[in-house]
Amino acid sequence: MPENLLTEDATQNAGSCCGGGSCGSAPAAEPATGTREIYVVQGMTCGHCVGSVTAELTKLPGVTSVTVDLATGNVTVDSEQPLERSAVAEAIEEAGYDLVGSAA
Fold it and tell me: Which H helix or E strand runs over 78?
Protein backbone atom coordinates (compact mmCIF):
# COMPACT_ATOMS: atom_id res chain seq x y z
CA MET A 1 0.00 0.00 0.00
CA PRO A 2 1.46 3.41 -0.90
CA GLU A 3 2.52 5.69 1.93
CA ASN A 4 0.88 8.75 0.39
CA LEU A 5 -2.83 8.19 0.88
CA LEU A 6 -3.93 11.46 -0.75
CA THR A 7 -5.95 11.06 -3.90
CA GLU A 8 -5.24 13.13 -6.98
CA ASP A 9 -8.31 15.28 -6.21
CA ALA A 10 -7.12 15.96 -2.66
CA THR A 11 -3.68 16.89 -3.94
CA GLN A 12 -5.15 19.27 -6.50
CA ASN A 13 -7.22 20.94 -3.78
CA ALA A 14 -4.32 21.37 -1.37
CA GLY A 15 -4.97 25.07 -0.98
CA SER A 16 -8.68 24.70 -0.30
CA CYS A 17 -10.71 23.57 2.65
CA CYS A 18 -9.42 20.24 4.03
CA GLY A 19 -6.75 20.11 1.37
CA GLY A 20 -3.67 20.24 3.52
CA GLY A 21 -3.86 23.65 5.13
CA SER A 22 -3.83 24.09 8.86
CA CYS A 23 -7.40 23.19 9.80
CA GLY A 24 -6.84 22.86 13.51
CA SER A 25 -5.07 25.09 15.96
CA ALA A 26 -2.30 24.68 18.49
CA PRO A 27 -3.39 24.37 22.13
CA ALA A 28 -4.31 27.72 23.63
CA ALA A 29 -2.04 29.31 26.21
CA GLU A 30 -3.63 29.93 29.59
CA PRO A 31 -5.52 33.24 29.73
CA ALA A 32 -3.84 36.01 31.74
CA THR A 33 -7.18 36.90 33.32
CA GLY A 34 -10.77 35.85 32.90
CA THR A 35 -12.20 32.41 32.38
CA ARG A 36 -11.63 29.46 30.09
CA GLU A 37 -14.23 26.93 29.04
CA ILE A 38 -13.72 23.97 26.72
CA TYR A 39 -16.75 22.85 24.74
CA VAL A 40 -17.22 19.76 22.58
CA VAL A 41 -18.64 20.58 19.14
CA GLN A 42 -19.89 17.99 16.66
CA GLY A 43 -19.75 18.24 12.88
CA MET A 44 -16.54 20.23 12.28
CA THR A 45 -14.30 18.68 9.63
CA CYS A 46 -12.13 21.39 8.04
CA GLY A 47 -10.62 24.86 8.14
CA HIS A 48 -13.87 26.45 7.00
CA CYS A 49 -15.59 24.86 9.99
CA VAL A 50 -12.93 26.28 12.30
CA GLY A 51 -13.35 29.74 10.80
CA SER A 52 -17.14 29.68 11.08
CA VAL A 53 -17.18 28.56 14.71
CA THR A 54 -14.41 30.99 15.64
CA ALA A 55 -16.18 33.92 13.94
CA GLU A 56 -19.51 33.28 15.68
CA LEU A 57 -18.00 32.74 19.13
CA THR A 58 -15.79 35.81 18.81
CA LYS A 59 -18.96 37.91 18.40
CA LEU A 60 -20.04 37.07 21.96
CA PRO A 61 -19.41 39.93 24.40
CA GLY A 62 -16.26 39.43 26.45
CA VAL A 63 -14.71 36.66 24.33
CA THR A 64 -10.96 37.25 24.04
CA SER A 65 -9.87 34.14 22.11
CA VAL A 66 -11.18 30.96 20.52
CA THR A 67 -9.09 27.89 19.71
CA VAL A 68 -10.49 24.89 17.82
CA ASP A 69 -9.00 21.38 17.81
CA LEU A 70 -10.54 19.45 14.93
CA ALA A 71 -9.12 16.12 16.05
CA THR A 72 -11.04 16.18 19.33
CA GLY A 73 -13.86 18.58 18.49
CA ASN A 74 -12.81 20.69 21.45
CA VAL A 75 -13.36 24.44 21.26
CA THR A 76 -11.52 26.48 23.89
CA VAL A 77 -13.08 29.85 24.65
CA ASP A 78 -11.32 32.45 26.78
CA SER A 79 -13.47 35.31 28.01
CA GLU A 80 -13.42 38.20 30.42
CA GLN A 81 -16.26 36.64 32.44
CA PRO A 82 -18.14 33.32 32.40
CA LEU A 83 -20.39 32.92 29.36
CA GLU A 84 -23.97 31.71 29.36
CA ARG A 85 -24.00 28.18 27.95
CA SER A 86 -27.13 29.02 25.95
CA ALA A 87 -25.32 31.92 24.23
CA VAL A 88 -22.40 29.64 23.35
CA ALA A 89 -24.76 26.96 22.02
CA GLU A 90 -26.63 29.54 19.93
CA ALA A 91 -23.39 30.89 18.42
CA ILE A 92 -22.22 27.38 17.54
CA GLU A 93 -25.60 26.55 16.00
CA GLU A 94 -25.46 29.79 14.01
CA ALA A 95 -22.16 28.54 12.56
CA GLY A 96 -23.93 25.32 11.56
CA TYR A 97 -22.67 22.91 14.22
CA ASP A 98 -23.86 21.29 17.45
CA LEU A 99 -22.65 21.85 20.99
CA VAL A 100 -22.67 18.38 22.52
CA GLY A 101 -20.96 18.96 25.85
CA SER A 102 -18.12 20.37 27.84
CA ALA A 103 -14.65 18.88 28.08
CA ALA A 104 -13.53 18.06 31.59
Answer: strand 74-79
pLDDT at 1: 40
Instruction: Report the distance separating Cα 32 and Cα 93, nearest Å.
Output: 28
Q: Are 53 and 89 in contact (CB under 8 A)?
A: no
C-alpha dist (Å) from residue 27 to 15, 30, 67:
23, 9, 7
pTM for this prediction: 0.70
What b-and-e string marks burial along 24-58, b requiring 16 or more CB atoms within 10 Å of the CB? bbeebeeeeeeeeebbebeebebbebbebbbebbe
pLDDT tens by residue, 69-89: 999 999 999 999 999 999 999
- The angle at the Cα of 64, spanning 62 to 70, to the nearest 5 degrees, equals 120
Which residues touch 57 (CB under 8 Å, ≥6 apart)?
63, 66, 75, 77, 88, 91, 92, 95
